[in-house]
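Question: Now follow the chain.
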Amino acid sequence: MQLDFSKLGNGLLPAIIQDARTNVVLMLGFMNEEAFDKTKKEGKVTFYSRTKDRLWTKGEESGNFLEVVSILPDCDNDTILIKANPAGPVCHTGNDTCFAEINKGNIDFLVHLQDLIDQRLQEMPEGSYTTSLFEKGINKIAQKVGEEAVETVIEAKDHNDDLFLNEVADLTYHLLVLLTAKSYRIEDVVKVLQKRHK
């Protein structure tokens, strides 16, 4: 990677920071060669702060670091694209991004869905399919997860993508109901997966 830090005349290159998971642009900063080298070495995005006149690692005060996933130069080698995983809100205002965008991927819908399932458990409204599952108890819920898993496997062997995805959706929904019945969250499963990944 041959970046030309002298190209723009001030020894600084713009660095676009993008969420590696959602592809949302988080912020724009500037790097000199020293900040770039530190970013590569330590795996946390570091800028050259023009107002502080020093290197500045994003999150050094807030704890909301930007963990580097990949670094890409543009075609002219005078702009840097860094894909990173943010540890929290990126903007000093508390917003997800410096452009006041909400940085949520579609996967976050699972959290929202489990919130709704949890609400059904608390309120148990009549006529709700989710309520009927909770009324039948943990054994019935677990059995339903098993049935949906078998149906998913069957559809996986065929070539109808719509049916397969619908069965996966049914399985995911019933799994969220089972997690809720066991007083766990989808986030607990994510933590296990993250721990395994490390």
Summary: The longest strand covers residues 66-73. The radius of gyration is 23 Å. The CA atoms of residues 16 and 163 lie 40 Å apart. DSSP finds six helices and six strands in the chain.
